[in-house]
Amino acid sequence: MSIGEIYVNVVQKRFKSVKELGDKTLSQLDGEQLHWAFNEESNSIAIIVKHVSGNMISRWTDFLTSDGEKATRNRDDEFTDSLQTKEEVMAVWEKGWEVFLDALQKLTEADLQGFVTIRGEQHSVIDAIERQMAHYSQHVGQIVYIAKQLKGVEWQTLSIAKGQSQAFTESMLKKHQQ
Questions:
Q1: Which domain of life is it from (predicted)?
Q2: Which residue among 9, 46, 120, 163 is buried most deeply as judged by most CB within 10 Å?
Q3: Domain holding 13: CATH number?
């Protein structure tokens, strides 16, 4: 397998992992919690979802052939809380990820050597991918953080539970020695 193929496989795996963190977080919340914001300057989880989805659809529709900031995107509207139900929030979340992961799946090693444009600025394809990795991970981290605050003791951990690091490491070592 070439380095380009390895890279495409790795970023697909990492982005799916980021989505899974978001999925597991969103599943723990009710509609009211999705719209909670700390103050007027803060974004609710519903707004963050709307923004991430809008970014994904804009950046990854015709990724290799058109500017990533589509004329049809209304970024400012992404920061208004217009999604009413949890079902609407989830539909917007899934639509963004579907467009993004489909485009990512279609990338070839040859595509990695090319360039794309975002707001008129040229970026290598690899830079554009890494830029989105940072962006989406940042926002999913915000979603997780807000959800943990809202759920408190009812939060179901998404990683190694507190106090369980050693036991987890030992089980992983045993698993990989077999």
A1: Bacteria
A2: 46
A3: 1.20.120.450
